[in-house]
Amino acid sequence: MAIDPFKPIFLSADNADLKVSVIPYGLTFHSFSTEEGEDFIGGPEDPKDHQARGRKFLNPIIGRYCNRLPAGKLEYKSANGKVTHIDLPEFSAPGVVLHGGPESDKENKVDSIVQHGPFDKCYWQPVDTKDSQLFGDSGFTSTSNPGEKQSSLIFAIESPDGDSGMPGKLRVETLVAVVPGTGPNAELGKSAGKFLLRYRAALDSNGSVEATPFNMTHHWGFNLSASNEKVGKEDNGTVYNHTFQLYAPAGKTISHLELDPAQIATGDLKPLDGPAESFSNAGAQSWDKEGGKRIGEGLPSGGYDDFYVWGNVENIPQSDDINKIATEETKRVRLTSEAAGRSVTMHSNQAGVQLWTAGAQPEHPADPAQSGGSMKKAHRKGGLPDSGNFNGAFAAIEFGGPHCGFLLPSLVGLGGQEEILEKGQVYDHWVVAEAWRK
């Protein structure tokens, strides 16, 4: 019997207060909390709204290729120099294909491992550890029939050749796990636990396709103060008083990826404190200064929807042990609500990160039918009236390679070559999020 794809599955661990829930549809993160009645994740109250209210990208997995590519005919090269041509259909705007493109005209079955993307429209299948092809020896356990409580799960799909306009049959697996956190931190307080998100993918070894563009992310959005009755009211349910900070890897700088008027990457990179030379650069963003910057300080009229690049980092440990990969050297992001006494720090092996402050969402109060459903009750404790998910209600933090990285020569050395998955390789993308409270 198939599991209910809209019933939240809860992850927790001994000696960790952090609890995370996911739904198999879109492998969507539904909640993230450190205590009863709290929720750090924005989005709808009803899990079924993720399907019923259209693609608002409120916390699902994204692929085969995240963010924006130019629609139409493209070409890319395999490691051996072979050129392959693809033709991608428009989705979201003229000349643009966003987040894997339009929904497939092929109906997905709730209980099938074969799923037609884009990935946020798939029914991700929990698998037993013994049936995992990419995480079987990782040290984490999984079951195909999750119960009330587990600390880790593995979800899998098989994406057919031609899926989302991309060549090659793929096996994609995602490991999610909650583990105990580190000791107390003088600045952030007590750790409630760590959450591991790890994607692995491989081309079919028997297929004829040598390489395919591939760049995944999770489009998860955080609001650390909305569940706090007093602070949520003062903040009007928004993240504009949150502090966002980027940490450059040792010896590297962080740059802003410039966009053209269609929001397609140009390949140009600008310093974070540079002048406002294009609509996509708000100027002195300064996320990488000591202490970071308040999101609402110098907020552009449309909010932030920007990608920041530091590039590939050598010598990141290749380990399945969270404590060996989530170190000070791999810390890339901190999001803090000082007033609520809550923070999330994020570590990753990816070349960059997107910050989106929900600027495409309508203003409060938002029509639930137009904004992904009714916002969570846990985010209305401050007396906000019933509403959909509105502009500024969360900060989406999406790790991955730079947009169009495999297409633009200037980005090839900054993670773009990692966006071509070759036969015989295993794509390995991880993020560790640690929750803190004072």
Brief characterization of the structure:
With about 450 residues, the chain is mainly beta. About 5% of the residues lie in helices and about 30% in strands. A nine-stranded antiparallel beta sheet has the order 10-11-12-13-27-23-22-17-20, with no helix packed on it. It has a six-stranded antiparallel beta sheet with strand order 16-25-24-21-18-19. A three-stranded antiparallel beta sheet has the order 1-2-3, with no helix packed on it.
Secondary structure blueprint with pairings:
Blueprint: E1 9-11, E2 19-23, E3 28-33, H1 49-52, E4 61-62, E5 68-70, E6 72-77, E7 83-88, E8 92-93, E9 96-98, E10 125-126, E11 152-159, E12 170-179, E13 190-203, E14 211-213, E15 217-218, E16 221-222, H2 229-234, E17 243-246, E18 255-259, E19 265-271, E20 293-294, E21 305-309, H3 322-325, E22 331-337, E23 342-348, E24 352-356, E25 395-400, H4 409-412, E26 420-422, E27 427-437
Antiparallel strand pairs: 1-2, 2-3, 4-15, 5-9, 6-7, 8-9, 10-11, 11-12, 12-13, 13-27, 14-26, 16-25, 17-20, 17-22, 18-19, 18-21, 21-24, 22-23, 23-27, 24-25
